Amino acid sequence: MTVVIRLIGETQSTTWSDESSNNHSLRYTYELRDNGALLVHSRSSSADENGHVQERHRVEVVYGPAAWLEVRGDH
Q: 52: which residues sit within 8 A by CB, 6+ positions away?
């Protein structure tokens, strides 16, 4: 699912949108830490011409607790 974040001082939300094609998918999720930090994770999987699937995970961005007001999406 797409992750939508409303940042302090911004009029428009920041959006991390999922993507999908025949041999590739990219999905975004978020994590809230006990200290109020908000992390956006991406998980991607792709298949090569032989059908071997590779999966990757990484943290795309970290927002401090004073940077954001609201978040929606999968966590």
A: none
